[in-house]
Specification:
single chain; globular; 63 strands
């Protein structure tokens, strides 16, 4: 089930405290006894060395448990002997309880009413409560109607609170109160979307109108029966069409002033009494009078006459009561005022002069207060925040609250003050009055324009004209555009609609783009009505709507969003870059990634649908019906030892066709027949995997019957596939567990029978599947063992793969092909490569049959077409001869091809590369690839793209492509490849590559890279491997333009390279596994070799220094010690290898003048446990500085003379921490900390170093402290000035970069060397004109 989201949030908020205070190792036994930790999780904790790793693993495990387990964990902490641990346990439990209590509040947004102001109208309340009791047990709708001011809202609020709080109805689902009022359809859509957020309803795709929203919520509540028990109260509906859009509510109460025809049948009507009883009137008057005056009210005939004049109307009675009339003279004046008939009044539904009552109450205020109250007419009829009123009135908070309380006492408004926020509400009839001008000659439109401009000017003074600096008062960012449009303030509208800083603040308020899009839409409509050009804003509006999914929902960084998604040549990108440049001094950082090449209108994306909300490691499958009504099968909540749910849903309507639970079951694969009636799924049961097959129409489980007529007890096949062609009865293909036998079955009734069609092979089948839109099957296997080749244990292997095509209908061997398993590309030719190091191995095979057949094959990163052009040959030689004439190269990528799929008509071929989210589509015409298209897949930009997260399939009988994004959103995206204006590009005669360069340039891959500054000159080293030949090369670059100074072919396949600052040498390292006996005694067990080679004289030509090899057992572990010379020469470099136990001595503080000779005795023994990630570590010394780190670049310890700093959370590849002239730099929790290099203590204030702070807020972790001599203009003297350089930690958005992470840092560094003078805290903004083209700068 997993922890509730609010508990996960508590763990995240207290993450640092958990690391610092919770001793996980001490609590393991108790956690295991309470079954909070499982046995395998306890075992994993044993291998964690760092406290942080143990905490991370425990939090990950705890998040998979229930809420009760969280409470048990808190109790365990509270029983600990350490007071800090006990306090943390108590704090966690209290925080969880407070949030839980808040979430358990059943009366969401139900108005709170003061008992000393409102009476109980017993007959009215009883009628409402009686109907609410019925709603508690059954579905239904109540309509409470009556003229405005009759007390409908008050009575419903009282009734709901009474029946929930005292009678415990509508639990646990509660009540949601939605205030609607006088709104348009787009505003109501925004309200319903806010309601979805409160209900935690995950929208598959954003509804474009109320009709789509209502249809979606109907389906949602149909699938979620529990939430359909919620009582919805829709207050103040004024549009009859809204009833159709709110029909999703199974239980609802509607409050409205009018009766509508569509409510006659489905709603139970309750009419609000238009009059108080005399007794109720006296109760209301008594609230506002002293006791000595209350006694005289009943006998005073003037009071009776005044109340009769206002017809005992509730609103009017409350307002008259607020006047606190005491003397007969005052009552007589009230009678005279209410007796006057107002011929201009348009309130014909009232039987008295309500306008006169409102005017009388307002006129009782002194002039200043009267003017201030009338100013409130500028606000929309919503809950008006007190801070907004303070801004408008220019009052202090205390002065404003005092006046609002007085107005509340006079019943002119309702003042609400609670711990969350303070606001006031004005009745609609009072609001209508104060929105009319006092001067009858002035038009209402001009008067309201003056009010709107007054509010705008008040806000302008509050923020000093800096609109983005205006604080969120609960009203400004919500409605300022509305007021600017009503005021016809074109200057302000143009300012705000081009002010991305203001927009970003608005996004942080709403956590969504919806409200900003609505403001833009309103402004565009305003421009159109004014006959003004709106193209620029339509461009921004379309951009926001089209690419909303790229916005980081946590940071709401609009600038980064626009830098990623806006077109290169547009006002939007220019404005975003301008802001990025201006705000870098404030500690903000942005990046410019590759600009989208496809235009918004050209995107083939149709829609996306969320099909799962929990962890799922399997792929959904879709049916292939001829009527086009696709069904999707997937597994929800698919996690170990949890209750998984198999779901079959209709794609178009999102309605669940079948949904059933599998308790404590994990699902590996799902399948669905072409007609969508038969499903199959592979589950784990009793530690074995088996298939289950069901007919969802008859709800029966199918049995498998073998050729002898016996039922199979266990369906333990490795693979199961349905035939895509329906031929009377469904055909099923299965592959045995050992992947050597294939059987064809047919489904008849409740049984799946053996057809007698089977094949057995000597080798393990690599892939077996039905050919797209065909009853033929494609089978292929290798004639060698790939696993043995990895360890070079098979010297007599055959470089050959067999491909066969079988016809399942008549069961005959249709075609057979032989192809090499490995090929290589050398000297412009393709040959069969016998060595496994050739890199290009056959991985994917597809069969295409147009005018003639051909095989589409992926060899590593190369897409080939085999046996094409009508050739009758069925064999490609596995010898080393030229294979160029036997194959056609379609595409050459810089990444390995992970998957291929083919459309039903075999005209479209889609491929996906490893760790790549874009998909390339090839169009076949007459057996030739004529054009191609790149789809920039719609995905969450925060997702860590991993192989296996993105999958695709063609929709049956169409050129629509379904793309499944498995992490983190579990969405299906649909693309129409027949859309107009798609950017199909013609394929030239030459080989197509990922960047349109030559094939040779795509044949290399960067294995490792390193960077350093040698005497302030940037140096980059790259280890590059040719993917065809397997040859390893060392490339060295230097200078501001990163010019290549060396390109050497190495004699060993090195894996790592290391450069160090201010040292003219680099180190190459290689490690490989071995089983040869002669290496390490007579022990046959697997061991490792480490080879270290030193190269030096950077910039003067690279020469080899020496070569060193060391063999060791994995369990022994290895420490490599490097002593770096202090001078420029590298001749004195010492490289030594020693076992792990000597490493303990180094950690303890021992000093060596060589690897074997101890220079200073040990001070203490330090226990070092084995790392679960690495068995090797480096110790590097340079003078008095010593650093220790794993090969994964994690810095374990830093030392300077006798000072030591351990338990660091630093990576040396990201931060320059081996040695530095001033600081040790650590990044933690989004900040960069500076430590003194000699004491290793956190640095204090130093005007010559790091300004006033010891930490810099930063979202990136690559940094470097440099000193640069700068010559000031007009002076002959130069000065040395320090500054920090920050690089990218990781790239978000649609990032396209050919640089490795280390190379990006150095490119950033070398670009910054162009700067004439950079302040010590000044960071560099993005997109300078003279920056290198491929430089990603911060």
């Amino acid at each position: 089930m997993g922890l509730s989201p609010y508990l996960e949030k508590i763990l995240e908020n207290n993450y640092n405290k958990l690391i610092a205070r919770v001793p996980i190792q001490e609590l393991v036994s108790e956690l295991k006894a309470k079954q909070i930790l499982l046995d395998d999780q306890v075992d994993d904790l044993k291998y964690c060395v760092r406290r942080k790793d143990r905490t991370d693993l425990f939090i990950k495990a705890l998040k998979t448990r229930d809420d009760e387990d969280f409470d048990q964990f808190c109790q365990i902490l509270q029983q600990h002997q350490a007071i800090m641990v006990r306090n943390l346990g108590k704090a966690l439990q209290n925080e969880a309880k407070s949030i839980c209590d808040l979430q358990n509040d059943l009366l969401r947004n139900v108005p709170r009413l003061l008992e000393n102001r409102y009476i109980i109208r017993e007959s009215f309340i009883d009628a409402i409560c009686s109907q609410l009791e019925d709603l508690n047990s059954t579905d239904g709708h109540i309509l409470v109607h009556g003229i405005a001011g009759s007390g409908k809202t008050t009575a419903v609020a009282q009734s709901v609170r009474l029946i929930v709080e005292e009678q415990n109805y509508f639990k646990p689902h509660g009540v949601y109160w939605i205030k609607i009022g006088d709104v348009q359809e787009n505003e109501l859509l925004q309200m319903v979307m806010t309601l979805c957020h409160q209900l935690d309803v995950q929208l598959d795709c954003k509804p474009q109108n109320l009709k789509e929203m209502d249809a979606y919520l109907r389906r949602y509540f149909q699938d979620h029966k529990n939430q359909s028990e919620i009582l919805f109260i829709f207050d103040d509906i004024r549009n009859s069409t809204f009833f159709d859009y709110l029909a999703f509510a199974k239980k609802s109460v509607v409050i409205t002033s009018l009766l509508y025809p569509q409510t006659r049948e489905n709603y139970h009507h309750i009419k609000a009494p238009e009059q108080f009883t005399y007794q109720e009137v006296i109760q209301i008057l008594a609230f506002y009078q002293n006791k000595r005056y209350t006694k005289n009210l009943r006998q005073n005939q003037l009071v009776v006459q005044a109340i009769e004049n206002i017809r005992y109307f509730p609103l009017a009675v409350s307002m008259v009561a607020g006047l606190c009339l005491k003397t007969d003279q005052e009552w007589q004046q009230a009678i005279d005022t209410t007796s006057i008939k107002d011929t201009k009044a348009k309130l014909t539904e009232y039987k008295f002069n309500l306008v006169a009552v409102v005017r009388m109450c307002i006129n009782k205020l002194d002039e200043k207060k009267r003017d201030l109250f009338r100013l409130l007419g500028v606000f929309k009829q919503v809950e008006i925040p007190i801070r907004s009123i303070i801004c408008l009135w220019k009052y202090s908070e205390q002065e404003a609250i005092t006046l609002l309380k007085e107005l509340d006492n006079r019943s002119l408004l309702q003042y609400h003050d609670n711990s969350e926020r303070s606001y006031c509400v004005i009745h609609e009839k009072v609001m209508d009055f104060i929105q009319q001008p006092i001067d009858q000659q002035q038009s209402s439109r001009l008067y309201m324009q003056e009010l709107h401009r007054a509010l705008i000017n008040s806000y302008r003074q509050c923020c000093n004209g800096k609109w983005c600096a205006c604080p969120d008062d609960g009203y400004f960012y919500q409605h300022i555009i509305y007021h600017a449009i009503q005021a016809e303030d074109d200057e302000l509208l143009a300012t705000l609609m081009t002010d991305f800083n203001w927009m970003m603040m608005k996004l942080k308020v709403f956590k969504s783009l919806s409200n900003l899009c609505q403001d833009l839409g309103d402004y565009i409509n305003y421009l159109r009505l004014s006959n003004k050009n709106s193209d620029a804003f339509e461009e921004l509006h379309d951009l926001l709507r089209q690419h909303e999914f790229y916005l980081d929902k946590e940071s709401m960084d609009l600038i980064q969003f626009l830098l990623c998604c806006a077109k290169k040549e547009s006002w939007i990108i220019d404005k975003a870059v301008q802001i990025a440049n201006q705000k870098t001094n404030m500690g903000n950082y942005w990046m410019i990634t590759k600009y989208p090449q496809n235009k918004t209108d050209d995107s083939p994306w149709i829609r996306s649908k969320t099909i799962d909300t929990n962890s799922s490691l399997i792929l959904p499958k879709c049916s292939r019906p001829r009527d086009g009504k696709i069904r999707i099968i997937y597994a929800n909540n698919n996690r170990w030892r949890k209750d998984c749910t198999i779901v079959v849903t209709e794609y178009e309507t999102s309605r669940n066709k079948v949904k059933f639970s599998l308790p404590k079951t994990y699902v590996f694969e799902v399948r669905i027949s072409p007609d969508g009636n038969i499903i199959a799924y592979l589950i784990s049961r009793d530690r074995r995997e088996e298939w289950e097959i069901h007919n969802i129409g008859t709800r029966q489980r199918l049995n498998a019957v073998n050729e002898n007529g016996f039922k199979l007890p266990v369906l333990d096949w490795k693979k199961l596939e349905f035939c895509p062609i329906i031929m009377g009865y469904p055909l099923v293909l299965t592959v045995s567990r050992d992947r050597k036998d294939i059987v064809i079955w047919k489904i008849q009734g409740r049984e799946m029978r053996h057809t007698g069609k089977s094949i057995s092979y000597l080798h393990r089948i690599e892939r077996c599947e039905f050919i797209q839109n065909s009853c033929k099957i494609l089978i292929w296997w290798r004639k060698y063992n790939s696993y043995r080749l990895r360890f070079q244990e098979d010297n007599n292997w055959i470089n050959e793969c067999q491909i066969e095509v079988w016809n399942t209908q008549d069961w005959y061997h249709h075609q057979s092909f032989e192809v090499p398993g490995f090929i290589r590309y050398q000297h412009g030719k393709y040959t069969a490569g016998k060595s496994a190091s050739s890199r290009l191995e056959l991985t994917v095979v597809k069969y295409v049959d147009l005018e003639s057949m051909s095989i589409i094959a992926a060899y590593g990163d190369t897409l080939l077409r085999l046996f094409s052009n009508g050739s009758l040959a069925n064999r490609i030689s596995n010898s080393n001869r030229d294979l160029t004439d036997s194959l056609t190269v379609i595409y050459q990528s810089d990444k390995y091809i992970a998957d291929i799929t083919v459309s039903d008509d075999h005209q479209l071929i889609a491929i996906r590369m490893h760790l790549e989210k874009n998909i390339i589509i090839f169009k076949m015409e007459k057996d030739t690839v004529r054009s191609y298209l790149t789809i920039h897949c719609v995905q969450d930009t925060k997702a860590d793209l991993a192989d296996g997260n993105l999958h695709f399939m063609f929709v049956c009988g169409s050129h629509h492509l379904l793309v499944y994004n498995q992490y983190p959103t579990y969405c299906l995206y649909r693309y129409n490849l027949e859309a107009k204006n798609l950017n199909w590009q013609s394929v030239q005669e030459s080989t197509l590559t990922s960047d349109q360069n030559s094939v040779q340039e795509c044949n290399t891959i960067v294995i490792d890279s390193s960077h350093a500054f040698v005497h302030n000159i940037p140096i980059i080293a790259k280890l590059v491997v040719n993917k065809q030949s397997g040859s390893c090369y060392l490339k060295v670059f230097q200078g501001e333009r990163v010019e290549q100074i060396a390109n050497y072919e190495l004699d060993q396949p090195y894996q790592r390279c290391f450069l160090y600052d201010d040292s003219d040498f680099l180190i190459l390292m290689m490690m490989y596994a071995c089983k040869k006996k002669q290496c390490v005694g007579n022990i046959v067990s697997r061991h490792w070799h480490i080879v270290i080679t030193q190269w030096y004289k950077l910039g003067d030509g690279i020469n080899i220094k020496h070569f060193k090899t060391y063999s060791y057992h994995v369990q022994d572990q290895l420490a490599c010690k490097i002593v770096v010379p202090m001078n420029k020469r590298a001749d004195d470099l010492e490289i030594g290898l020693l076992p792990w136990n000597r490493l303990r001595q180094i950690m303890a503080g021992a000093r060596y003048n060589s690897v074997s000779k101890l220079e200073r005795p040990l001070k203490q023994e330090v226990r070092i446990t084995q790392s679960p990630r690495a068995n090797e570590c480096f110790v590097i010394e340079k003078g008095n500085v010593m650093s220790m780190f794993f090969l994964d670049d994690e810095l374990l310890m830093k030392g300077y003379k006798d000072a030591r700093r351990r338990q660091l959370d630093i990576e040396i590849a990201d931060v320059d921490n081996l040695w530095t002239d001033k600081y040790l730099i650590e990044k933690s929790n989004g900040q960069i900390y500076f430590y003194d290099k000699t004491t290793l203590q956190l640095s204090q204030h130093d005007s010559e170093t790091i300004s006033d702070t010891i930490a810099i807020r930063c979202d990136f972790s690559r940094c470097k402290w440099l000193e640069k001599s700068t010559r000031h203009q007009g002076r002959n003297s130069s000065s040395t000035k320090p500054y920090c350089i920050f690089g990218l930690n990781h790239l978000k958005g649609n990032v396209e970069s050919q640089l490795t992470s280390s190379e990006v840092v150095v490119r950033t560094m070398q670009y910054l060397l162009h700067l004439e003078s950079v302040d010590r805290h000044e960071q560099v903004a993005t997109r300078e004109t003279n920056a290198p083209k491929d430089c990603l700068s911060t």
